Amino acid sequence: MPFYRQRFLEHGITPQSIRTLDDVTRLPFTCKRDFRDNYPLGLAAVPRERIVRIHASSGTTGKPTVVAYTAGDIETWTEVMARTITTGGVTRNDVVHNAYGYGLFTGGLGFHYGAERIGATVIPVSGGVTKRQIMLIQDLGSTVLCCTPSYALYLAETALEMGVDLRETALRVGIFGAEPWSERMRQEIEAKLGLLALDIYGLSEVIGPGVSVECEHQCGLHIFEDHFLAEIVDPATGQSLPYGQRGELVLTTLTKEALPVIRYRTGDITALDAAPCACGRTLVRMAKPSGRTDDMLIVRGINVFPSQIETILLQIEGVQPHYQIIVDRQHSLDDLEVWVEVSETVFADEIRGLEALERKIRDELHNGLGISARVRLVEPRSIQRSEGKAKRVVDRREVYNS
Ligand code: DLL
């Protein structure tokens, strides 16, 4: 592996440097930039003829991050996804509606292989054509829904427009991930779809979905530690943090062949908990990821995470789980505006009611975030829905900075 050989050489790391597991913290980090600098496959550790699959994740700028798998990696991935789906209580008796995108994105095929491995019936519907998805869920008696949490809500909303209540279908479990979602969002989804909503986490650079998942107790995501070694570091200093403290998740692959990563800085913020779970699993758990280090908005010097805004908004009666955060710069001052969809009944209300709601949201945001934000109430269904990952933040300041 020329990349790591060179990197270790630069840091004076030799095989003798590593004697115990704790010595891992002496190894240098790998980060997204290393993928970019070595685009497309400079980090591969096997010759091209051993690579049987390529996936890629699209970033916000420039070239995608390209990842590779050997036949052995596909087997490992299938195994961790079979476990993931089983952790959700899914068996061969289930019908799995898989609405994660098929293609270069790892979501669709990752779930597909895992669900097939356990013998479930897989519907490889992928994203899009939402009305047809509702029809298929009804007609095929789907019991498990796999998609992003934002798409789950969109499905529920579209179903209602069609006069279908998803709570009355056979759906009983949802395995949702690929983007951050708050506990409040979980409550909304469970209430609207009538299912147990579980969180799944993963990333292309490490394997795709299948790094960790919640069990029915919904108290943290079990990390498959026999394949992925997890650490938490302080995002600012890179110093290791003890269990229980929130920081950036760093992952090392233990079994990957085509593209092993050593101390990969995921950018995702979470904390680890080694206590055994009520389900009996002893795998370390990670808290529901609350956002990314690079999603953190610094508005007038204050750190703001989109997840904080989501939690505040969804506690307010009449607010729908659809919002967008717009950051701009006006006369060299940062300006935060939050667009919030309100329910049909609120929208039909008198102006006075709307003004009161707007004020309430503004006050709650101010109390919760410590900075003022402008609030714009928008009509039901006016914020763009997503079939994959939702885009919650529009940072117009980037235009000026780049
Ligand atoms: O999103 C893999 C995946 C597919 C996970 C389907 C779960 C379900 P990427 O496109 O490479 O891979 O994006 C990875 O998405 O670093 C996180 O920032 C975010 N992410 C993934 N799962 C969660 C989650 C797939 N459960 C990036 N909660 C990661 C919060 C998540 N963020």
Secondary structure category: alpha/beta
CATH fourth-tier homologous superfamily of the largest domain: ANL, N-terminal domain
CATH architecture of the largest domain: 3-Layer(aba) Sandwich
The CATH class of the largest domain, by name, is Alpha Beta
Report the mean per-residue pLDDT as an integer. Answer: 95
Measure the end-to-end span.
34 Å
Q: In the residues, how many domains can be counted?
A: 2
Radius of gyration: 22 Å
Low-confidence stretches: none
Can you give the helix content as a percent range?
Answer: 25-40%
DSSP strand tally: 21
Q: Determine the number of helices (DSSP H or I, runs of at least 4 residues).
A: 11
**CATH topological fold name of the largest domain:** Rossmann fold
Cross-sheet strand order for the largest sheet: 4-3-5-6-7-8-9-14-13
Strand residue content: 25-35%
Structure in words:
It is a single chain. The protein is of the alpha/beta class and 402 residues long. It has 2 domains: 68-292, ANL, N-terminal domain (Rossmann fold, 3-Layer(aba) Sandwich); 297-401, ANL, C-terminal domain (GMP Synthetase, Chain A, domain 3, 2-Layer Sandwich), CATH 3.30.300. Helix content is 28%, strand content 26%. The strands form 5 sheets. Strands 4-3-5-6-7-8-9-14-13 form a 9-stranded mixed beta sheet. Strands 10-11-12-15 form a 4-stranded antiparallel beta sheet, with no helix packed on it. The model has no long low-confidence stretch (mean pLDDT 95). 5'-O-[hydroxy(phenylacetyl)phosphoryl]adenosine is lined by residues 57, 100, 106-107, 177-180, 199-204, 208-209, 266, 268, 289, 292.
